[in-house]
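Hi R.,

As promised, here are both runs. First protein below:
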Amino acid sequence: MKKNCFTLLGFLIFIALGYAQEATTWERGIILDSIKVKDSVNGTFLLYLPKTFRTDRKWPILFITDTKGTQKQSMERFVDAANEEAYILAASNELSGAASLANNVVQIGEMVRRVKNSLPIDLDRMYTAGFSNQGGRLANLVPIFIKDIDGVVSCGATISNTEVLTPRNRFHFIGIVGRKDFNYPGMLSLKKVLDDIGYPNDILLFEGGNEWPKSDLLQKALQFFNLAAMAKGRIPQDTAYVDRLLQGDLQRGKLLRKQGKLLLAERYLAEIRSNYRPLNSLDSLKIVLRDIRRDRVYRSLRRTENNTFFKEGLLKDDYAFYLEEDILTYNFNNLGWWNFQMEQLDKFIKGKDPFEQEMGFRLRGYVNALIEDNIGVLETETPKDEEALIFLWMLKTITAPQEYDFYLNVISLSAKNEDFGTALFYLEEALKAGFTDEERLYDLEHTALFRITPEFNATLKKYLKNSRYQVTDE
């Protein structure tokens, strides 16, 4: 018996020394880049160890999924929360929006295995996080393919297909979304679905659009994971920690209510109640929620928001239908209709009704996301349907006039087809919209002949006060 005890003790010491040997070479409190996944693979990942990290205890970890090449910036958003709540952060450098789902999941899986073998990770407290339709939806799918992922922080992204959710891959879903984000109505609908199938979930709202939430909401998500771990008995219950969080959350709900933000207050307090219920008596909070829900102002606001959602749904159906028709028929004549629709959305945004203002922002975001999804599909096809692509690029200059790449795409393809009239029109539209990068214009593919025309140089001289070539008629 003693021999077995000493053997077990020796094994544990060996494991601890193994962690210490590698982990002590990694600096705390800074983002470490280009850590190799394993020696035989060129893949790398980023790692952040909180300032209080040590090797004699187990740590929760958050794997951040970023497919746009901005892994470091995404990780930086979680650093404050990671330090406050004692989480390790990791993010693969190998993820890409152009890669297949299978490839991205494989890369994440390799990183997970590397981290588990190198650091004292609490295997019951591994989570993913991502932003928007690519990173966020990938984070939502990881628990389905990689076991032991216990939760997801999904910023501005819903679960694209709830039919893949089963009791075997149950995880804690935390959605964070702005009220001006086109995913906002979908996130509220998703909550109802998750409630119906018994998936633990929370929805945190803020007043922005399709953007990263502030650090306090990211920290709140990690706190919810901590509370859930205490409720499940995975970590000891810390009464002082729970009471401190609860008092802060009650104060936040009280402030929202005082500011007249009753919809935000009700939804926030409802999430608070579900998280603290297993750990604390919340009779007073139950009374507060009952009072808000009986408030005439709250009920009026709720009806108005629901009516706006109904109107928004009809408009979204129209946009999806007409865009599909326009792509199939190359309906360039309908660009004027789309321009009119954007003018109508601008009227909502500039109007006095706050619900219609938010709807205007959401619908603009929805149209742009719809167009980008179609562009992504067409760009992967072989051969590419250039006529459909140029239609969508032209449409993008209407729906997102400050995104200059789409003007340049139209100019390049038009010049390639020697349609210099169209190229000149979109050159001037880009310059009117504020584009000033002269070097990009001169380096633009397929435009060698277009760049030496008198019209091209006259247009640059008019808007940029300069032109590289002086072409005169003789």
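And here is the second one, sequence first, then its structure tokens:
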Amino acid sequence: ALPIWARNLHKAAQIVVHDCNGVFPQEYEAILSLPGIGPYSAAAIASLAFNRRYAVLDGNVMRVLCRLFALSTDPRSSAAKKHMQEWLDVAISRKRPAAFNEAMMELGALVCTPKSPLCSRCPLAALCKARAQGEPENFPPAAKKKPRPHHHIGVGLIWHRGKLLIARRPEQGLLGGLWEFPGGKLEPGEKLAATVKREIREELGIDVSVIDFFMQVEHQYSHFTVSLHV
């Protein structure tokens, strides 16, 4: 199965062909309605492709604004993002919104860099509160790293008459639509063999007999790690 972004791309292309006569929509709301496109992507497409007046707030722009206003709050918080988005929505050029967005993103990527920012080359240096304080690298404040949770997963290799069963995950949710050996999380006080039997019954509605342990696989995701007990 294709990953979710590829399926969304295919669905969006079908909508453009069948509902929009093959012409990609130019208005923000229409772009936002396409599968797989959220507010950030819709604003970027509307602005950069069609010069619509929608401000784009990405990581580079966040860093520029955090230093410009010497914001001491976490820029990833909802309140900080809302404040920065409101400022951009007012400040963005009416005649050249695409150029404004590109300039802000390039300013963060090439000048207002995370380490050793080139303040002497910055067109906003005279207005920058972080530079005035003499410590621009202190902004934005470093995020506190939370320990990544670790999960133990019981996974079953289900054999029947010489064939191996592979199940497809639900379309919605983590790794939606991809294929897997069925199983799930180990519950407190539960043995792995019991986890496998329980999860397979819940997911597939079938009962299995656990024969033996096969192998253990360690895997890392961006926000958690897993041990797959097969």
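A quick note on the second one: Strands lie at 150-155, 158-160, 163-165, 167-168, 179-180, 183-185, 216-220, 225-229. Let me know what you think.

Best,
J.
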